[in-house]
Amino acid sequence: QAPLVLADKAADAAGLSADQVTVNTLFMGGGFGRRAEADVAILAAKVAKAMPDVPVKVMWSREEDMRHDFYRPAAIARMKGAVKDGEAVLFDARIAAPSVTKQSMTRIMGFAPPGADPAHVEGAANQPYDIANYRVAGHLADVDVPVGFWRSVGNSFNGFFHESFIDELAHAAGADPLQFRFDHIAPFSPPTAKLLAAVRDMSGWTGKTPDGIGRGVAVTWSFGTPVAQVIEVADSEDGIRITKAWIACDVGTALDPRNIRAQMEGGMIYGLSAAVHGEITFANGEVEQENFPDYDALRMGTAPVTEVQVFENNTHMGGVGEPGTPPSMPALANALFDLTGKRARELPLSKLFDFAT
Nearest to residue 267, comparing CAs of 301, 298, 233, 313? Predict the structure, then answer.
């Protein structure tokens, strides 16, 4: 993800100048932040320096990679809100997390940008809701765990905080969760409100679900692109299944609609996998998870049937690689609340619910 940085870091490690290092840039199967780090190149350069005139190939096993990573930061939020006459009149959030920007930029560039880290509040402070009293504060909470960029960065945890709490406000107001969002977004961002209308029509949303079925909705704005999602879950003999998903996004100008749909689906699956399975724990100073058996992802048999609509109403072009991730986690949590009556305030959701495998 950062070939020039790799060249500089490898040169420093080998005691060479950058023009003495060649980085052969290849296509990646996926670049979600981890491949922006230079630790692998530094190690390879040190090994090569110790073995002059010998071709060296350095490979990490899955276990080595997973246990020596730069992780998505742990984050916590304290939320307060109020509704009056069916309308949200107060939204107050305080969010604490380590700073991905400061840690990662210090490793990559040798210095950190001055001032507060926008990633602490992105996905919460910049959402298109028309609420009279709206405040979001971010707090630095460094821990001795290396953190790095993860698909959608701060939006990944703040999307869960924000849209889960918006759902709680909707239920406190006695309102339909989708209509509640529409009413608070339409005055501020009509293109975003149209996405809620789209997923309502795509999913046949009525606000009521039969026994054994749950539906949840979430809408987030990140990287210039609003995305709305409805997730459906169902009880089954072997646990809860994520059965269906509907996604609507507005990218301004759709240069490659098929790629946009693929990115929206992939971003959603990335978020749902983390919401269901994603947890890194430590014991005796070491990461406990080693491979897919203890850090899994959704498979084809557990992933939802998905429908995507792409809109071009925004006046600017937005991104597509990351915006599909933030709404997926709260939409799933809200669907589980609809199914079970249990409100999840912590990820992964498997701590509270039994999912089919």
Answer: 298
User: Please, which residues have CB within 8 angstroms of residue 260's CB and are 6 or more apart in sequence?
Assistant: 249, 251, 254, 308, 310, 320
- The 8-class DSSP code of residue 328 comes to H
Q: What CA–CA distances, in Å, run from 99 to 142, 147, 204, 233, 242?
A: 7, 8, 41, 34, 32
CA distance 154 to 267: 15
Q: Which domains does the chain have, with CATH numbers?
A: 3-59 (no CATH), 76-351 (3.30.365.10)
Name the pTM for this structure.
0.95
Write down the number of H helices and E strands in the chain: 9, 9
Q: Which tens digit of pLDDT belongs to each residue from 283-340?
A: 999 999 999 999 999 999 999 999 999 999 999 999 999 999 999 999 999 999 999 9
- pLDDT digits 0-9 by tens, 10-24: 999 999 999 999 999
Coil, helix or strand for 99?
coil
- Between CA 353 and CA 349 the distance in angstroms is 6
Q: Roughly how many angstroms between the first and final C-alpha of the chain, as a whole number?
A: 33
